[in-house]
Amino acid sequence: MSRIGRLPVRVPGGVSVDLAGGEIKIKGPKGQLARPMVDHVSLQVDGGVIHVSRDGDDKAARANHGLMRALVASMVHGVTTGFEKKLQIEGTGFRAEVKGRQLVLTLGYSHPIEYAIPTGIAISVDKNVTISVTGADKQQVGQVAAIIRGFREPDSYKGKGIKYADEVLRLKEGKSA
After folding, report:
1. Mean pLDDT for the chain overall
2. What are the tens digits of pLDDT across the range 61-90?
3. Strands 23-28, 16-20: pairing kind
4. What distance in Å separates the CA atoms of residue 5 and residue 38, rounded to the nearest whole number?
5. Residue 104 bridge partners (DSSP)
6. Beta-sheet pairing, 161-164 with 83-90
7. Which residue, 45, 51, 69, 43, is CA-closest to 8?
8. 151 vs 153: CA distance, rounded Å
9. Which terminal residue of the chain, N or C, has fewer Cβ atoms less than 10 Å from its own Cβ?
10. Does pLDDT of 110 surpass 80?
11. Per-residue pLDDT tens for 12-59?
């Protein structure tokens, strides 16, 4: 039995769970998330707890058992407290600002980069160098943070660029004379 899959998912007050048509919908104070059910797995809602069970004992069923439980737990966490990724900009003259639903980045290129903020995501900039990406969907928050980081990844010699706040860079040694 999957150690992750057999753990129940607690549903806090103010969160509603709907299982219909092969899809799970979870609604809470931070938004609403929906995800299709994976194969070989079924969900049961008992009061304030969601139980995940698998149909068989084959390899696909065992793999999807823990996966579905982790996805449901992330959905419940997302609609109650949300997820956040922080990015830091390193480099002279590099900065960011939010204009409406656009993130405008000045990263040393000949032109500023404008990134349209997707729905369901909130981006805030602090002191022009710290970008905070928040939202209810864990996958979407991580994807948006990765896209923003990809505009100017930190170089391996000076560390200039956009990095995650908790990322540790190993800088290479420059040329030796």
Report:
1. 93
2. 888 999 999 999 999 999 999 999 999 999
3. antiparallel
4. 13
5. 97, 114
6. antiparallel
7. 51
8. 6
9. C
10. yes
11. 989 999 998 889 999 999 999 999 998 889 999 998 899 999 888 889
List domains and CATH numbers for the chain. Answer: 9-80 (3.90.930.12), 83-164 (3.90.930.12)
CA angle 135, 137, 139 (to 5 degrees): 115
Residues 6+ apart with CB under 8 A from 94: 105, 106, 107, 108, 129, 152, 160, 161
Gap between the Cα atoms of 7 and 71, Å rounded: 13
The tokens describing 110, both together, are: 């000949």
The owner of tokens 């992750």 is 4
Picking from 154, 144, 142, the residue whose alpha carbon sits closest to that of residue 108 is 154
**Please, are residues 135 and 85 in contact by the beta-carbon 8 Å criterion?**
no
User: How many angstroms separate the Cα of 81 from the Cα of each of 15, 51, 99, 124?
Assistant: 11, 21, 26, 17
| Residue type, position 153, single letter | E
Tell me the C-alpha distance between 152 and 20, whole Å: 43
Q: Which amino acid is at 73?
A: A
Among 97, 96, 99, which residue's Cα sits nearest to residue 152?
96
